[in-house]
Write a structure and sequence with these properties.
35% helix; Rossmann fold; five-stranded parallel beta sheet; 7 strands; NAD(P)H_dehydrogenase_qn; oxidoreductase activity; alpha/beta; Flavodoxin_fold; two-stranded antiparallel ribbon
Length: 215
């Protein structure tokens, strides 16, 4: 039986954070459950350079197009490899950190994640068949995040990025009022992520493997 492939993205530039503890607990349990797991840690890997030309925001179609930078191509290949994407990040200013936004801008490029059709307003969702999980930490209480921020961070990542590209979000976990929590609460959260990792290792369905050129 083919093992599911899970890509864990730690979407904070701050090393050794609560999100790291949550993500590694999830990843370790998913591996123990038989899944193949890769981790993209945005606190460790150099930030992908900002695009300076529109052509950098699409997958090269032929040799005349601007090629992807090697570090961008590596992250594109990670997403292409995955059956299931798991995002861990803190909410900053009602959204997710710029480090994660930059990674998404460079990786979810046209021709790989989505493709506009020549006529009309429709588009092709090129990441269909994949699933995702979102885990967000925040200092605000749930009611404030829902009423005042309108769940902006979750809506942006889930609706405007993942589902736009065909990725079905299976679940969203919000860990609230972090700065007011005791160590026992954080330990309980970390343990809960292990349970989610084990669940996903068992329940994620591997996709049919298709090679995609990303160079």
């Amino acid at each position: 039986m083919t093992a599911p492939r899970i890509l864990v993205v730690i979407g904070t530039p701050l090393a050794a954070s609560l999100n790291h503890a949550l993500a590694h607990s999830y990843a370790d349990a998913a591996r123990a459950g038989g899944a193949e797991v890769r981790v993209v840690d945005l606190a460790e890997q150099p930030a992908l350079p900002q695009p300076t030309r529109r052509e950098e925001l699409r997958l090269p179609r032929d040799e005349s197009d601007v090629p992807l930078l090697p570090e961008v191509a590596a992250s594109v290949a990670d997403v292409e490899w995955a059956d299931h994407l798991v995002f861990f990040f803190p909410q900053w200013w009602g959204s997710y950190p710029a480090a994660l936004k930059n990674w998404i801008d460079r990786v979810f490029v046209s021709g790989f994640a989505h493709r506009y059709r020549p006529t009309g307003r429709l588009w092709d969702k090129l990441l269909s068949g994949r699933t995702a999980r979102i885990v967000m930490t925040m200092d605000s209480p749930s009611f404030w995040n829902a009423w005042v921020y309108r769940e902006a961070a979750i809506r942006s990542l889930r609706n405007a990025t993942l589902e736009y590209c065909g990725v079905k979000v299976r679940a969203v976990t919000r860990l609230t009022e972090v700065r007011h929590r005791a160590d026992t609460d954080r330990e309980r959260w970390v343990g809960g992520m292990a349970s989610l990792g084990a669940t996903d290792a068992e329940s994620v369905t591997p996709r049919a493997r298709e090679a995609v050129a990303v160079g």
